[in-house]
Amino acid sequence: DLPVVISEKSVKRKVMIIGQDPLRKTKDFQRNAAFQKGDNLIFGTPYALHSHVYRSKRTRVYWQVIKDLASGGHELYLTDIRKDFVGSVAFQKGRYKKDKELLIRDKTILEVELEEYHPDEVVCFGGLSHSFVQPICQSVLRIDPKRTEHPSPRNRNWNNLLIRDKTKDFELEKAQWIISDLGL
């Protein structure tokens, strides 16, 4: 995934939002026309924001958080701690636990992103992102990143944080909870 900057005209603060990774299911690639043609490289954006279909369905909560923060005067830089996808989710997770060169490469890229963008705030979606980013933020910016719940539907913590009410939009409630949690 390529990093994305989203901004409105008047900017109060620069915020870097760092997600976990561009993990995809292999079948997502198999459905992609470029993949089917044999292209070896497919570009995307964090939270699939380049896709109206994803913004309105699967990643709607991410998009709502981003829209709310941008409309509140924040310039946003969206990126992930991991910079590529290779193979299945299980393969990818195992690969990152074992491959020190990949960890060093991704750490170095993130250091450069932080130095170049120099955000006022750093927000991490989820614990994995936060544990990776915290020492880098301390070293590069001398600030602590904020950790919030990962918006993913697979995050089971949402069942403990919010009570599902069939009359309310659960995804919108999650977005509102994240905005409140961040205090931005």
Which tags fit this structure?
alpha/beta; 184 residues; globular; five-stranded mixed sheet
Description:
The protein has 184 residues and is α/β, with parallel strands linked by helices. It has helices spanning 26-31, 33-36, 52-56, 60-71, 89-98, 100-117, 127-140, 158-161, 170-182, and strands at 4-6, 13-19, 74-80, 121-125, 146-148. The protein has nine helices and five strands. The model has no long low-confidence stretch (mean pLDDT 82). The two termini are 25 Å apart.
Q: Uncertain spans, ≥5 residues at pLDDT below 50?
A: none
What is the number of helices? Answer: 9
> What class would the helix/strand composition place it in?
alpha/beta
Distance between the termini: 25 Å
Strand order of the largest sheet: 1-3-2-4-5
Radius of gyration: 17 Å
Biggest sheet character: 5 strands, mixed
* Helix content, binned percent: 40-55%
Mean pLDDT: 82
Q: Care to count the β-strands?
A: 5
